[in-house]
Amino acid sequence: MRIEQVEIYPNSWQKHGGSDYCMTATDAGDMLQVSGPDKTLFEGELVSDIKKTQCQSTDKAYKLCPLTVENSKIIRELFDFTRPKSHKGHDITIGLGDRLGLASAGHIRTIKDLDVFPVLAQQSMRELNLTGRTYADVLSSATWAVFREGYIKGYGADGDHLKTHEEIKTALDSGYTMITLDCSEHIPLGLDAVVKFTADVFNRHIRGKNIDFELSVDETQTVTTLEDHRYIARALKKEDVDIVSLAPRFCGEFQKGIDYIGDIRQFEKELKAHAKIADEYGYKISIHSGSDKFSIFPVISRLTGGRYHLKTAGTSWLEAVRVIATYAPSLYRQLHTYALENLPEARKYYHISCDLSKIAALEDTPDVRLPGYLNENDARQVLHITYGLMLQSRNGDGTLRFRDRIYRLLNEYEPEYISALEKHIGQHLTGLGIKKTGG
Ligand code: ZN
């Protein structure tokens, strides 16, 4: 096979020992290019007629290496900046979940000059199941984006909403640096049962390691009261369990991909009190489903004293859908129709309150207005929660119905996807009032 190089990514040049590294766009997708002695370490194909711009190696042969999980492990062994790190000590940390494994480059370009530590690899078990991905694969995607963009300021990897010892072990074995323990199933048994489970997990998996341990009680039926929060904080301290953050279930609703629903005054009051408890016990408040919560971003920044963790994920998927709606209207129409047809199934995993009657009929909407669906809450929610069904849907002959086309299109329009993320995630960071580094 002859691979045509299209372009070398200018920020991807690295040296290690006597070897030169860069990443290159080819007609077969992005690849790692390695010259010198290190090339024996990677799986790939030896080639000789490759672009050598900036490359000082005298080596005649090069290896073009696919961006596999195995190759990413070697990259992480050799280049410290590509290894995920604990975010302890950073005041503002943001989870930038990337369900497709295509958004991290856009995320990096959005945050690279800002005073914020990104958690680029972040997936819950639910998301892994719905996307058909693995923790190793999610980390691999983040690693390659970090390498390609030459982003050396560090990033984290969060095994989000984990509920069992096995899940936690899988995430840690895959190199994850943050564990978000979901205690929602223990809450009905009483707070002592929570605390006991949390201490057990901490002692078995976390103690003595530099892992960011978050406790989440956000996916429970009832709002977390201040008394309960204080009780948990005190009990964890007594058990000598260190958490970096706690995600309460706040008043109002944090639905996916749309703004906060509820009484902002009440939220302000509760957030302030929760943040005070967290401060007192030395951890941060974590806000889940932080995508698109524009009306409360300024409040979050102010009332936490600029110390918080905020998680987003689905909004980056919706920006991918926006790119599809703009550049592939016929594929968008198929996805939209499929999403509406399969909504009842998706509602088993996600709680939303959209009103289908408010979504304009697809047949009355011309192609140029398709991206407009991504500006409407009801359509956003439908397109948001059906991602897993879309990605895994198969034709009668067993082939994937949408997945390959979605990936092909987004790879083709990657610069447009990056711009869309810079704009949309950028609006999140502006709303939070995040400053430039050193600014
Ligand atoms: Zn959550």
Describe this structure in words.
This protein is of the alpha/beta class. It has 3 domains: 5-66, no CATH class; 80-314 and 422-431, TIM Barrel (Alpha-Beta Barrel), CATH 3.20.20; 316-413, no CATH class. Helices cover 40% and strands 16% of the residues. The chain is built from 16 helices and 14 strands. Strand 7 (92-96), helix 2 (104-111) and strand 8 (117-124) form a beta-alpha-beta unit. The N and C termini lie far apart (50 Å). The mean pLDDT is 94. The structure holds zinc ion (ZN). The site of zinc ion (ZN) has 6 residues, from loops.
In terms of topology, how is this protein built?
Layout: E1 5-8, E2 14-16, E3 19-26, E4 29-35, E5 45-47, E6 62-66, H1 69-78, E7 92-96, H2 104-111, E8 117-124, H3 125-131, H4 135-149, E9 156-162, H5 165-173, E10 178-182, H6 191-206, E11 212-216, H7 226-238, E12 245-247, H8 264-281, E13 284-287, H9 297-303, E14 308-312, H10 314-327, H11 329-341, H12 343-346, H13 377-385, H14 387-392, H15 403-412, H16 414-431
Parallel strand pairs: 7-8, 7-14, 8-9, 9-10, 10-11, 11-12, 12-13, 13-14
Antiparallel strand pairs: 1-3, 2-3, 3-4, 4-6, 5-6
